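quick q for whoever's on today - can somebody do inverse folding on this one?? i tried earlier but teh output was garbage lol. tokens:
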């Protein structure tokens, strides 16, 4: 049975950051594996990619391209199998492009 999880914008190097969502690389219902990029973002003019840290299916997008988001903001939701995933369920990873 799938469980729904909020995807919250992560900190960068442990610090609270603000970023702009530039584009979504994935559409709702996309099947994702750990490490798959889901969005392109900009922080202080530098381009990064957001990647998921656990296998899931993207179920909805909250933040639209052009929106500014901060650490902790819910930007999307996903569905994952199993209740006891070995990953932090809100986990997104910021990676340089």
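ok took a stab at it. sequence:
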């Amino acid at each position: 049975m799938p469980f729904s999880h909020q995807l919250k914008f992560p900190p960068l190097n442990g610090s609270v950051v603000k970023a702009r969502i530039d584009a979504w690389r994935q559409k709702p219902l996309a099947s994702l594996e750990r490490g798959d990029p889901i969005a392109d973002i900009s922080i202080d003019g530098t381009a990064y990619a957001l990647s998921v840290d656990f296998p899931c299916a993207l179920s909805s997008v909250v933040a639209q391209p052009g929106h500014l988001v901060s650490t902790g903001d819910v930007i999307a939701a996903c569905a994952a199998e199993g209740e006891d995933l070995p990953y932090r369920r809100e986990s997104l990873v910021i990676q340089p492009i």
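fwiw The beta strands are 2-8, 18-24, 31-32, 37-43, 46-52, 56-61, 68-70, 74-81, 92-96. also The CA atoms of residues 12 and 51 lie 13 Å apart. so keep that in mind when u check it
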